[in-house]
Write the structure tokens for this entry.
Amino acid sequence: MELIPNHALIGLGSGRASRAFIRALGERVRRGALRVRGIPTSEETAGLAREVEIPLATLANGAVIDVTVDGADEVDPDLNLIKGYGRAMVREKIIAACSRRFLILVGKEKLVPRLGTRGRLPVEVTPFALCICQRWLEQLGCHPAVWAQNGQPLITDNGNNILDCAVEPIPDPRKLESELRAIPGVVGTGLFLGMTDVVLVGNGDGLQLIDERKR
């Protein structure tokens, strides 16, 4: 909360860490300790923000977000990320790109020596191209599996499908990102490269701050 300026426009991430932050932020807003507006990265986040009485805004008129607070599924030593296990990575990446500061909250188990260590990289694709994207991703060695329930593909807030790619630790994330984005029908990937400003790591007793600009 010390990193959140008053009267700020805040990007509100998705996932467990983000929900905890949003509830804490809402408590400050209700007490009048902070006046902020939030831009949510998912419909679930929007619902929680309304529940805790955080006023919401949109990206209309080229809004610049002061700080976005979000979680991550992997963080490498250069503060590159894999996100998307919560299925909101496309909106999360848009919000992060519109932010002056991108702040990540994780547990220490999310710190990895190399992206892909946990073996999973989500890729969002348009339903029209689902089958062809599966084929091309397989050719890249990504071994995609459709995000589904009871045998039926599930849909993101954007109306798209998710392919969970089984990956090994990625030797060149930027090359892979370029190859994935070159596939027609791919809307976005879970690779967040060179976007993070600050990572706060929960260690059980408190938080360790890692600031990339001081590295």
About this structure: Helices lie at 16-31, 43-51, 89-97, 130-139, 173-181. The CA atoms of residues 181 and 188 lie 7 Å apart.
